[in-house]
Structure formats: C-alpha cells, structure tokens
Amino acid sequence: MTIWGTMSSGRKERLLGLLIEDNGWISSRRLADHVGVTTRTVRNYVAELNSRGPDLVIESGPGGYRAAEGARGLRDRGYGSSPRARRDVLVRRLVDVDEGFDVFEMASELFISESTLETDLGRARAMLAGTPLSLRRIGDRVRLSGSEIARRRLLSRLAHDELDASAEPAAAYRGTRGGRGPSAQAMDPFKVDLVRSLDALGYYVNELAISDVLLHIAISAERVMAGHPIDAPSAPEDPEVSAIAHVLQELVETAFGLELGEGDLDHLARLVLSRLVTPGRTKVEAAGLIDADVHGAVRAAAAHVARAYAVELDDEQFLLRLALHVQNLRRRVNEQTTARNPLTRTLKSAYPLLFEIAVAFADDLHRRLGLPSDEDEIAYLAMHIGGHLEQARRTADVVTVTIVCPGYYELHEILRSRVGRSLGVAIDVIQVLTRVDPDWDSLTTDLVLSTIPSPLPPDRVVRIHPFLTEADVETTQRAAARVRRSRRLGRLRAELSRYLSEAAFLYPLPDDGEEVIIRKLGSLLLHEGVVDQTYIDNTIAREQISSTAFTAALAVPHALQMTARRTAIAIGVADGSVRWGSGRVQVVAFAAFSGNDRAAFQTVLEQLAEVFSEGESVQRIVRRGRTFAVFFDELVAAIDR
C-alpha cells in the first residue's frame, strides 16, 4: 500500500481544489505559484492524480489545466478537501456501514497517511461529544455505536452544515444521501400535498421550516430503504401525533411507494409537530394546547423585555402566537432536536436591535423554563417580536411633507389623494398649499412636493407634475429614503461624539479570542469609572448566549443589563482581523449602556451595523484608523457618505 507524504499530499490537495473552484483553464505557472512548486512538479502531480481512478481527473491543453469529470469524484471521496470535510466523509461512512471500516483501507481510499486519518477520527469523536453516539474501535476496525434516531440526527446535522456552506438548495439532499432515497424533485409535489393535508387538520404551516422537515423525511426514507427502521415507540399514544402520522403514512406510500413502520411514523410526526406546524386558534382554544407554565413564562418575559427596551409587547394575539412557538420549542428540547432558520444571518446583520431584544427574551425564558436557545431559535423569536413591533410601530421616522399645488378646481385634492395612495405610510402630508406665491421660508416639513418652481434648496424639494406620474412617485420615495437615512446617521454622529473618547481606544487588538478582548476593552471603561467588573462579567455572559458579531467586520459586545454609570463605547481596531467566535472581525465596539440611554442603544447598535456592513467604508476605517482621531474622522466620513 502506498501512502503519499504529508507535504506532497497537501500540495496536491491545493492544486486539485484550485482547479475545481476555478472551473476553467489555469496556466501551469499560476498553479505552480499557488502551490509553491515548479511547473515540472505540477506536471508530475497531474500525472499522479490522473492515475487514481478510471475517469480523467485533470485535463491538459493549450490553456494549461482544468478539472475533468473525475475531479469531483476524487474530492467527494475525501481527497483534496479540508480536515472538516474528511471528518464528514468518515462520519457518513460510519453511519452507512454497520461494521464500520478498516483504518488502513480508509487511509488508502482517501489518499492520506494513517496518522492523518487518526487525527480525522479524533475530530469525529469531538463532533459526537454530547450525543448518544460514540466510536468503538477493535484493532484496526472502527464502528459507530448508538441508536438509529441519533444517527439520523447526525445525518441532519451534516446536511445542514453542507447547506449552510452552499448556495444550492439541493446540496443537503445530495450531500447527505449520496443520490439514494427520494430525489429533490420528487419532494416538491410531496410538499404541496403535505401542506394541504396539515391545513385540513387545522394547523398553520411554518414555511421556513418545511425544507428541514422534508430533509428528515428524505433521510428516513433512505434509512428504511437501507434496512434501518426505527423501533416501535414506547411513549403513550398522543392523538395529535397519531393524526399527523396517519397523514404521513398515506403521503409517503403514495409519493415514494414506501411503507414506514410505527417507529418511523411516530418519529416524523413528532418532528412535524415540534418544527413545522402551529395549531390554529380554534384548535388551541378547544384543546388547551399551551401549558400553563409556558403561557405564564411568556407573559412575564414579554413584560420584562418591554420594560428593558421600552417597547410594547402586551397584545393578546401576539402573546398567544409567541406562547405557541415556545410550546413547540419545549417539544424540540424534549425531542433533542433543533429548528434551522434560513433568515438567521439576515436578521442578525440587518436588525441588530431586534435580534438583541430576542436574545434578552430567550435568556429570560431560559431562567424561567430552562429552555436553551441557539441562534436559529433566537431568530424565530426575533421574527415574532419584529412582526408585532412592525405592526405597532410609531411614526417617529415618517417623513413630513408639504404639497404646493396652485388651486384649479379640485386639482390639488386629486393630487393629494394620489400622493396618499401611491406613497402610503412612507410620508405624512402635513399641509396642502394652493397659492402661487406661498411663504417658502415658513415651510418646516422635511420635504416639499411642488408643482411650481421653488427657491428652497434642492435636497428639500421634489418637483412633481400636477397629475402624479410613476416617475414622480419613484423620485419622492428616493428623497424620503434620503431624509430618513440622513436623520438616522445624524443621530448616530451626535451620539458617537458623546460616547467615544481617546481614552477608550485600543490599537491593535490582541488576537486571543473574544473573552480576552472584552476584558481588555472593558478595563479601559473600568478605569474611566463607566462600568464595574460585574458589567464586564455580564458582557462575557451575554457573548456566550449568542455572538455579537453583527456583521463580518464588527462585533458589539455588551451586557443585557443597562447598568453602566453612563453610556460609553470602547473601540478596538485590529491589525487585519481577530478571532471572534467561529469567525473573525476587524473592529470591536465594547458598548456600556446606562438605563437612561435606551434610545442611544438603538441608534448606535443599528447604525454602527449599517456603516460596518459597507465593505469599502470598513476597509477605509480599518486601514487608516490606527489612532483615535483618524478613526473618528473616517467613521464620521463614512456616516456622511
């Protein structure tokens, strides 16, 4: 048996990876520079790779080299992939094959050394930590020990990890099932029938979670086809579970020609109940499906968060829907499952304050009910809370407008009506002036929509036609958006000038993880008398609930409790980037908020996230902002742009 040397194998992996990712012709010189070898060695590597299977791996031509048919097959078997990808290959093999595999044979198949394989097995053991699964080894053979349900949960986790890293929705099916079981295309009509049947039973379907449920159904179908059913359930019969199991039995048999046993049907029905459906109001009132302690905890948590963040969360219908969601969260905890949310990253980066409110709500629920929440669960809470706040939001950011339209019969009334219909809640028309010579200097609204020339500055006036056109509507919408953005950024600029100081600025940040950085920046505010040690400890505890890296460039660590003596922000700028949770950031803003500055909390958190989501602005700030004065100037310049 021939095992390639570690250094040589690593370079071949990089060469193959570059060819697969580029998906086009690459010159031998570029490949040599990328891998760190000579062009002659590149030719040797290509020849060796092409000898590894029946299909051509790398094609050569006048343009250099490109990946051929066999390249992806070689990568799928674990070669040329990251340690994490090789770990996943091993885990999938262990799930699929009851007798496991021989370590020497597997090392040869993956084109790696035995020592590398042993390291990858260590990663697999770490992945299984905290689950009912474990690796058992007898001599040179390794196998997986654990229940069938635990194996399916592991397959789901692997599929979701691959889906998170792929822009292709079908990647999870392909990566988990390897082409076996129901196809992705076959799931589409099945989904339509499933939603229709659940609706007939009186349930609302969570469309965001349905792909997750379909993935589990596909996994179950594959495992049953492979001779790995789940044993019959030992739990007492539940009428809700039985009704959904009956629906699933009929649909799976019709769509896939597959008969599931009692254990599989019970497992899938409970999964549907915990992730996919919410009972309609009539069903809730008739059956009393919300536990009393859940209802009470949701009410208490909502009241606590409402006081802390000065928001209104006391609507009965909102609390009912939220309690149903938390009831399902309890189901998921009992079933040892989670619900993925495809909008988690978007919600966290675009609505940091909303996500922060959801974090506080989840933390309160954890203390009252012992329910853990990952970021996906927090995102679902944010969607519930955000939906309610959007409906009940105040009109503080509404753009005020004066319409100037000299009177001619009812022309001004027609124009006022058309503006209202076309622009809706985007603006608030304060007055309509029908004179040809209005007192322009007395107009105090944000914008003036005028059908006649105006001496006012261009940024305040939108010239429109007497009969409003689509172009007029679009121009007004852009002007209103500009006013709102200017207002928001103006607030931020004013707040930042109050809360940032040279005494609380650090460059460069230590690359030692988020806790070390939080303590380092916190010590600056501690020295200024802004916070005490408890606030710093609470900030670290908050970070453990959910990462405060709200964009790829910025983290804003802070405590859930607004107990700072005054509001201040300590800024740290990295020389490049620093590790933060599972990613890296370039700027860290340790935010200390006092209870008197809730409005500042909202302004600073949301607008800092907005500024640091713009790639060009981020790079200018980080590249130049090595002193406080330059950092502040660049930040203000980014706000003004």
Automatic annotation (TrEMBL):
Organism of provenance: Microbacterium azadirachtae
InterPro entries on file: BglG_antiterminators, HTH_11, PRD, PRD_sf, PTrfase/Anion_transptr, PTS_EIIA_type-2_dom, WH-like_DNA-bd_sf, WH_DNA-bd_sf
Keywords of the record: Repeat, Transcription, Transcription regulation
GO biological process: regulation of DNA-templated transcription
Domain annotation PRD: ranges: 289-395
Pfam families assigned to the protein according to its UniProt record, in alphabetical order: HTH_11 (PF08279), PRD (PF00874), PTS_EIIA_2 (PF00359)
Lineage: Bacteria, Bacillati, Actinomycetota, Actinomycetes, Micrococcales
Gene: licR_1
Protein name per its UniProtKB record: Putative licABCH operon regulator
Domain PTS EIIA type-2: 498-639
